[in-house]
Amino acid sequence: MRPDGRAVDELRPVSFERDFTDMADGSVLVGFGRTRVLCTVSIEGDVPRWMRDTGKGWVTAEYNMLPGSSPERIRRRTSGRDQEIQRLIGRSLRAVCDMELLGERSITVDCDVLSADGGTRTASICGGWVALHDALARLVNAGELGEHPLTDHCAAVSVGIIDGQCRLDLPYAEDAGAEVDMNIVMTGSGSFVEVQGTAEGAVFGRDQLDELLDLASGGIATIVDLQQKAVATPPPPRPGRD
Amino acid sequence: MRPDGRAVDELRPVSFERDFTDMADGSVLVGFGRTRVLCTVSIEGDVPRWMRDTGKGWVTAEYNMLPGSSPERIRRRTSGRDQEIQRLIGRSLRAVCDMELLGERSITVDCDVLSADGGTRTASICGGWVALHDALARLVNAGELGEHPLTDHCAAVSVGIIDGQCRLDLPYAEDAGAEVDMNIVMTGSGSFVEVQGTAEGAVFGRDQLDELLDLASGGIATIVDLQQKAVATPPPPRPGRD
Amino acid sequence: MRPDGRAVDELRPVSFERDFTDMADGSVLVGFGRTRVLCTVSIEGDVPRWMRDTGKGWVTAEYNMLPGSSPERIRRRTSGRDQEIQRLIGRSLRAVCDMELLGERSITVDCDVLSADGGTRTASICGGWVALHDALARLVNAGELGEHPLTDHCAAVSVGIIDGQCRLDLPYAEDAGAEVDMNIVMTGSGSFVEVQGTAEGAVFGRDQLDELLDLASGGIATIVDLQQKAVATPPPPRPGRD
Amino acid sequence: MRPDGRAVDELRPVSFERDFTDMADGSVLVGFGRTRVLCTVSIEGDVPRWMRDTGKGWVTAEYNMLPGSSPERIRRRTSGRDQEIQRLIGRSLRAVCDMELLGERSITVDCDVLSADGGTRTASICGGWVALHDALARLVNAGELGEHPLTDHCAAVSVGIIDGQCRLDLPYAEDAGAEVDMNIVMTGSGSFVEVQGTAEGAVFGRDQLDELLDLASGGIATIVDLQQKAVATPPPPRPGRD
Amino acid sequence: MRPDGRAVDELRPVSFERDFTDMADGSVLVGFGRTRVLCTVSIEGDVPRWMRDTGKGWVTAEYNMLPGSSPERIRRRTSGRDQEIQRLIGRSLRAVCDMELLGERSITVDCDVLSADGGTRTASICGGWVALHDALARLVNAGELGEHPLTDHCAAVSVGIIDGQCRLDLPYAEDAGAEVDMNIVMTGSGSFVEVQGTAEGAVFGRDQLDELLDLASGGIATIVDLQQKAVATPPPPRPGRD
Amino acid sequence: MRPDGRAVDELRPVSFERDFTDMADGSVLVGFGRTRVLCTVSIEGDVPRWMRDTGKGWVTAEYNMLPGSSPERIRRRTSGRDQEIQRLIGRSLRAVCDMELLGERSITVDCDVLSADGGTRTASICGGWVALHDALARLVNAGELGEHPLTDHCAAVSVGIIDGQCRLDLPYAEDAGAEVDMNIVMTGSGSFVEVQGTAEGAVFGRDQLDELLDLASGGIATIVDLQQKAVATPPPPRPGRD
Questions:
Q1: Does A195 touch chain D if contact means CB atoms closer than 8 Å?
Q2: Which helix (H) or strand (E) is C82 found in, with range?
């Protein structure tokens, strides 16, 4: 039995609150249970010097935990872990973005964790995709882009082995004691973008790896459905801006 | 006529959402119009080495704007302006906290601006006070403190001169063009804690200073009423923690 | 009775030693009692990229305490307090400088505290104004500027409440124990540029604020007279440079 | 046909030069083709404060590319990529080290890349294991440890998809153009420690993932054989130290 | 003929102004022509952890140029050159200080250049020695030290080759164009502490080296005489401190 | 008798291993006994902005000790000592390089110490010269340079006084206890480039200085012979690059 009563292949309640703030080009408060991440998207009409005149754009991400997002206060600094996570988020979102359709624009997806209860990096990818979809849809609606540059959904989830049992979507209490911790990023069409599995004080066999991949595929399919519902309507106009 | 239709002595809609997140010891999402700041309070049962064995505690604040809190993305770094603001917030809250009643505890009040439309530092003080009140009330309820250490309310508001007219609670659009910008911090009993007035490309006379102080006093009295309502009920128990 | 025998509305001995060093464009060693600050002015014939082609110049300040300026050695680093002070000095001097008359020049006023006995930031403003006046007068004398860009005097002084008594120009011994500490910046014509009052472990009422503002106005009028005497003669030629 | 004529499941020439330098407790120059990494192991007889009195030790790694290790000079700084890699190396080696047998000792495995031609992180793990084995064997030989704390081999290799073809052990020329890049870390007994697969501008299916895992397993088995040969003899005494 | 009319073996006017400021334990404004350096000495009654219980003290120096000390403003940062210089000053003063007589005290000699016209590092050593002598004399006078720990004078001067001619005590105008630049530190008894000679775009022979060493020895003998005169009387009492 | 049995005027075994790595434009592993430094040379076809259109190039050096190069692990950071050393290496190599023949190219000589047993800075100069010679010879061979820009050899050695005895080429064991430590840089034609002598807890007389200079001259003549042998043949072609 899991601490929160879920089945091993069951996600926590997932929510996407669009335009939670209204200053950025896109803004989504994503929730996976008690984990909540504010994803905001900022678009600049320019690219770094080395990309000019290529006709292509670029997408990067930044990831940060607010000091009060954890019971033990977190110091304000960018740790190695944070950098590793933001590189992952950026690569994942770039995998489903057509940089030529995007044109010479620089996009930053900021993922600020308001409340951390495990799975903050995968929640960031899921919520970041929705915020990015909204920000780009606004450009399409405004006639600045001819076609929406996102080519597919992108979603992610954690899986892991706890007490020898494979489980989907680990909260902190499970994550902290997991023998194996794996983050999987997939597209809406079921292909892999990233597979990152780590054993902590244990190792894992090929059959366990297969079971974890199956669990993740199922969870991600559910998340993609929720993303589709979230962006089924066009992004609402923002007061004084749209 | 002000851009948002308010009278010169009228506050923007003010809201305090308690326990917006539930990891920290206290957490309030404060809103002044479109300005929204997440204030979280973390308590450590220890003080820095130089304060040990004094029997007294300490309160500091940190202030930060999220990158997506502004239409033009803000880089993640602590600017000189940020440091100046967090020193102000810390001094203000310390002015109404009895450090001997607090005992040897270190409190950090983190003010993370989710959406910035002027008055973020004064909103931080107002919301930080409510979050601090909740965090300390939890210690009192748990029997760890005999008496609540806050001796009075503490609230703040901005006032300024725009086109020669004195106005209360400036949003960004007014603040950016103000000839004089002033932040006032007061207690619930109507005394001053801080008076910070700055002329930008203009100077101001004694009579204008008096008018600004009157405007601020009125606004702060209203905010103190709202704080009282906010903390009229004890802080709600947090799932799995209280 | 004050520790140094002064009346509550009496300044410490104030001195301006022009061209104390002769490398910078302007250089003044300002003294308020044992507080001594070396103010040097450097002028560059260019402005930051974002100001080019505006026809306007810019004035900034840097503030620093030498390690040996205090009985307890001060580490070499720019603290948050230093940044807050240098922003204040810069704003104050800009308030009396006509940026169009200055033209596209960048001016840095460096305030290095040689000896710190309270009131270093206000002394920096008073001495910085004289050094800036000299540096710009040299440009006028050399025919590089048609008109002197300073539109008025700018001077500052600290006031505070000690043992319930309002006093002018606090040395360190008074400042350290003050209930209220206030720094006031005014022009030669008696308008306010900055009002910064802070209660430390106490609060203050409106009548006390009024008394402090009166004390400051009187002190600043005296300092402005001394500034006038200091710049009554043109800046002396520097060996090998003028 | 691969650029260097290898079969798709063939490793580059692999070499372990023990005690390449003789100052550190263990030192191995590992080569995978033109990729060469100097792995040195330093042992301190103490652990960080938070681990004291646990009876356990700790192993961390640092990874760095020398400026001249690449045709385009690399600036001396620790990038986010470097931090991500050194965290991977540390986790991998910890997975096969019994921290209780190690006792309260802190071990740092420094991996300095002398020549970079792809696969530097996996080479670092392979060479780091040999250097760590030597350093600990010296402690066993000296009677400071009763039993060798390494519980198994640990080796790693990169695999990837280039032009739709799965290949083992990618040099830079292949890595730079790979659609999918994967680093696999395994134990001598064939279990997984880490699986890190990343699509660059492409995605990959489950069958491709399986093929890559097969390729990696085969390569790692070969590397483990070479590690066994390398440590078959005890570490040679170092002049003036052993 | 030299630019300032001096003979090749003639020093610039040298001055030592004791207790130029009165906060530090010792304070000397040293002048070599237009070069002026404020040397202040701070004494702490403790040593770093690694020196405790050795019965010995330590002396370090810090060197810094004020931004306005040069016609072209100098940015506030510690450059590699600054660090090299402060290491030289520290080593030089330690060479004539008996660390056992000093006891477990940490001394910092801060050398802040107010005006830079060449020879700032050698002036710092000469003035630092006088300030250090005064600070330690105060400890002797107060009965905290039984014997003065300085065992000899320490003085320094620059020499160089300009247009093939060896010259003593180079101002900036000569230093900037020198083919060889040498800084010599000697004791009062005529022994060497440091010899640092550098060719810039030229090289030098053994005979030139000998000529430069002769020039320096003569100049340093003169400086030592001036130091002796400076410290012939005990350090004056400081208001409110001695 | 010296610890390693050498005569006072005898060098340790000196070796130059050319193209130890093959990514950089020049690469030499230099050995002085157990001291080993990897010197790599990187050439960029551009100069910093302030040198453009002068027709001249520039040579700088960077110096770094690998963490495992010393029995006590060295932290990865650039210390003040490192900066002082890399400035010395850069100046020394520039003294024998004709910047006009070099043309507008920026050269970086990276000296990474693999094993530190004293004399790492002088070994860096000796090895850096050979690596620089090779890198420039490749440009000459490729027809990119008409004439080799090195005008002479440049070599360096340490000398010192131990127990009152002058000795050549100090290993760490001697260096750590030396009363005087001196580093001498000379050209192939016997002129001085740098003379840096430092007394540690002792001073030295003119006669001792003369004896040290004689020892160094002899040692450097031997090293120059070895450099000549090392570069007697043209640099070997590098696989896939030349």
A1: yes
A2: helix C80-94
Write out the H or E segment, with its range, that includes residue C134: helix C120-141
Asked if the C-beta of F98 comes within 8 angstroms of chain E's C-beta atoms, the answer is no
Helix (H, G, I), strand (E, B) or coil at C133: helix
Those residues whose C-beta lies under 8 Å from the C-beta of residue D191, and which sit 6 or more positions away, are A199, A203, A204, A205
**Which token pair is C149?**
């860009």
Going edge to edge, which strands form the sheet with D180-187?
A165-168, A154-162, A180-187, A192-199, D192-199, D180-187, D154-162, D165-168
Question: What is the H or E stretch that residue B28 is in?
Answer: strand B26-32
- C-alpha–C-alpha distance, residues C143 and C123, integer Å: 30
Nearest to A38 by CA among A58, A18, A8, A9: A18
Mutate to test the interface with F, among D22, D73, D120 (most CBs of F within 10 A): D73
Q: Look at the block and give the residue holding tokens 């895992």.
A: D213
Q: What letters, b where the CB count within 10 A reaches 16 and e where it falls short, cover A118-127?
A: bbbbbbbbbb
The hierarchical CATH code for the domain F14-230 is 3.30.230.70
The confidence band for B213, taking pLDDT boundaries of 50, 70 and 90, is very high
Residue D31 neighbours by CB under 8 Å, 6+ apart: D13, D14, D15, D16, D17, D123
Instruction: List Cβ neighbours of F7 (8 Å cut-off, separation of 6 or more).
Output: none
In degrees, rounded to 5, the angle at the alpha carbon of residue F231 between the alpha carbons of residues F228 and F237 is 175
Phi, psi of A5 (to 5 degrees): 80, 5
- Set of chain D residues whose Cβ sits within 8 Å of the Cβ of F108: 67, 73
Residue of F56, F79, F35, F38 whose CA lies nearest to F174? F35
> What is the domain partition of chain F in residue ranges?
14-230
Encode pLDDT of F130-181 as tens digits: 999 999 999 999 999 999 999 999 999 999 999 999 999 999 999 999 999 9
Taking the C-alpha atoms of residue A110 and residue A20, their distance in angstroms, rounded to an integer, is 14
**Structural tokens at position D125:** 């793990």
pLDDT confidence band for B240 (50 / 70 / 90): low
Q: Which of A41, A196, A233 is nearest to A128 (CA)?
A: A41
C-alpha distances in Å from residue E162, one per residue of D153, F99, F114: 66, 21, 40
Looking at beta carbons, which residues of chain C come within 8 Å of B80?
A: 80, 83-84, 87
Write down the pTM of the prediction. Answer: 0.92
Calpha distance B60→B68 (Å, rounded): 25
How far does the CA of residue E225 sit from the closest CA of chain C (Å)? 27
Those residues whose C-beta lies under 8 Å from the C-beta of residue E132, and which sit 6 or more positions away, are E26, E41, E59, E93, E97, E107, E109, E150
Model pLDDT for residues E20-67, shown as the tens digit of each residue: 998 999 999 999 999 999 999 999 999 988 889 999 999 999 999 999
CB contact under 8 A, B22 and A34: yes
- What secondary structure letter does DSSP report for A51? G
Residue D32 contacts residue D123 (beta carbons within 8 Å)? yes
Task: Compute the 3-state secondary structure of chain D and give helix, strand, coil in percent, each to the nearest 5.
Answer: 30, 30, 40
E73 touches chain F (CB under 8 A): no
Distances F223 to D2, D181, F185 between C-alpha atoms, Å: 45, 48, 11
Of the candidates C144, C216, C153, the one whose C-alpha atom is nearest the C-alpha of residue C187 is C153
Q: How far does Cα A14 stand from its chain's mean position?
A: 12
Q: Are D220 and D119 in contact (CB under 8 A)?
A: no
Matching residue, tokens 């507008």: F104
